[in-house]
Amino acid sequence: MVFWAGAVGAALFVLVFLVDGWRRPNYSPVRHPVSALALGRRGWVQTANFLVSGSAITAGALAMVFVGPSALTGVVLTAFGLGLVASGVFRMDPMLGYPQGAPAGIPERHSTPHRLHDLAGAVVFLALPLAAAIGAFTLPGTAWKIISGCAAVALFVGLGRFSRAWEEVSPRLGLIQRAVIILGWGWLAALFSALALGLS
């Protein structure tokens, strides 16, 4: 049951930001990062998404630590889940023109909550490919080793592309981040589902 919570948490996170980002006034899913959805009057939706999904994923990850099949993968995914929760506690600063009236670019100086949000984001986006890489060696079954290995490579490449897009203030920043998230969270939801069905 706890593994199902992790699977639902991962899938719910993607579903919520896709739907909310599509319907949010003045918000561009192609340009703006997912975290920007936590800003403005409807920001509570993404904040709750961070908190609920992060908590569910953390619960599933802790089950991996104590039940298996890969305690080390579970430890790294626990850090990932807690990073999501922290991302909901600390919001990013308004920028890139969102919400309306925010600076058009990325300000040089940031608030303390934004810096803590950045730190939490670094944990999230580094922990997931690391967990997949560890899973490529520790998860049972050849199929899951191959799937996890491929996911790890794709996520590390995607993380590098997203980092460059952020530095360059790319107009496709949000699109690149979403590609990384959908791939990574998809791997995680599939893994938790397999564990719930008896992968051992």
Automatic annotation (TrEMBL):
A Pfam family recorded for this sequence: DUF998
- UniProt-recorded name of the protein: DUF998 domain-containing protein
Q: Answer whether the UniProt record assigns the keyword NAD to this protein.
A: no
Lineage, top-rank taxon, reads Bacteria
The UniProt keywords, alphabetically, are:
Membrane, Transmembrane, Transmembrane helix
Stretches that traverse the bilayer: 6-22, 43-65, 71-90, 119-137, 143-163, 175-199
